[in-house]
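Colleagues,

Please find the record for the two-part complex below.
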Amino acid sequence: MTDQLLFLVRLGLLAIVYLTFFRVLRAVWVELRTENRIVVTTSGVVPVTKGAPTPAGALSSGAFIDDHGEGGARLVVLTPPTAAGQVFELQAETTIGRAPSCAVVIDDSRVSKFHARLCQRDGRWVVEDLGSTNGTLVNDHVLDHPENVGPGDRIQVGEHVMELA
Amino acid sequence: MTATELPPTHSVSPLLALRPRRVEAGLLVMVGVAVGVAYGLASFGTTEAIPANLGPFLIWMFGLGAVAHLANRHFTSAADPVFLPISLLLNGLGYVVITRLDGSLAALQSTWTAIGIGCYVATLLFLPRVRIIEQYRYLLGIGGLLLLMIPLVPGLGTEINGARIWASVGPINFQPGEFAKLTLAAFFAGYLVDSRELLRSRLELRDLAPIGTAWAGSLGVMVFQRDLGSSLLFFTLFVVVLWVASERWVVLAVGAVLFFGGAFAAWTMFDHVQKRVDIWLDPFADPKGDGFQIVEGSFALADGGLTGTGLGHGEPGRIPFAETDFIFAAIGEELGLAGSSAVLMAFLLLIGSGLRVALRIDRVFEKLFALGLTTLLAVQTFVIVGGVLRVVPLTGITLPFVSYGGSSLVANYVLLALLVRMSHEQRVSVRPAKGSP
């Protein structure tokens, strides 16, 4: 093997390494871009940036929230202060609880694994308790049967108070 | 979609879930090719022949990568695809340089790599959720302190090269401190989850107790084990995690004051610290003696130039500890500025990915834990690369994934598995649960 060829192979090695970095950066970039587009997702906590609410129509992959009523209802956490301001996008059927498989996961020992459920029936939201240990409060009264709720109503599970918006 | 459907679950659609894994597979192939070419070049440079064991080496390397990749597919399908390929690239380049420096260490290092990958898979297998760790925070804290103290126990501890950081059990030598890093990071994160409300609301003298304890502890490590690098690492880890948990700048200020105070006290009290500083300020005062290592390291970097002498064509073997502490200088000599920058960039990408996990994950414990683990990688890289480049006084510490060293390699693979697991948790919680195709 001649020296020139060896030199080329050496440059080739560096080229592969830097190409790998380029691929990594591209993967990160693609991820950041798609995440910007899908700011609002249907499960887990989604920090919504101030002054930049993502309109539902901006989602390119409309499949994610095509089951919304008009406007896409949300739950906004009011207390405790550590969680205040978190926004959960509601689905046609949204479970609230401690279990990771809930759409609204609340990390609070006083909340049952599957605590309560919000459903959309005939364009209206219905909240029901799923037999939780410590109960669910709607506007400060105990929820004993499924109830209609609308924007401005407050739902409390454990220490968490959330407002429907 | 109708209201009669079952409650949503977090089962991610296969299409979405496997996208990161497809990217990862592509990156792994590129990394494999790069390391394979480097291995061939290094062998050709030293023996003028294509290595006889190139085939087995490639099978071994791609095999290990495939095992880790399949584990990712199975356990953490949504995790960031950057972690594994970048770590394997660093590990592979380090292995090539170690093989080239000392063939007898190569077999050991490849065994340790396999054990490291094994521990990586085991961590993913046995730790379905990182929050499990939070329950054991105090146990882990005590465990970390005990691990740190093992080398001081007569009969168990061994002093190698002036630092009492080794434990010997039968024929196996290992550095318990490497694992103490992980358990202490878990403890700091868990402890600060408990106390951060207090720390945030007000600041009294007694709130400084934890930072003071950490300071005293890391000074203790330095005094009793003569291990400057680890002591710096633990202190920085605690200050950074405390700073983020308390959201107070004053923590950084107090940390800096304590650090420089401690450093100055150590400088006045200990000969070996003074010597380190003197060598740092003027290595050419005694180029054949005390300054030999740094001087040879600088020459090696200078010899490397832009693209290096070529793997196998330099003489990095003349630098003391070229396969551990000074592996960065060895890489700089044979791969040049381009190669050593590539190593730094790889760390930058790895640390960036770690910080992205910390920024985005919801739960506080995971946030602080991911931050702590990333800080460990970052500070360790800075301390040793800075030491080799004479940015800071040299302290012996391994370059994560690159340096020769079993304990370090295994501990760093466990660290990587924890970050990958948290990355998966973070991405699954943000992913749409249903409605995906």
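The first strand of chain B starts at residue 157 and ends at 160.

Comments are welcome before we finalize the supplementary table.
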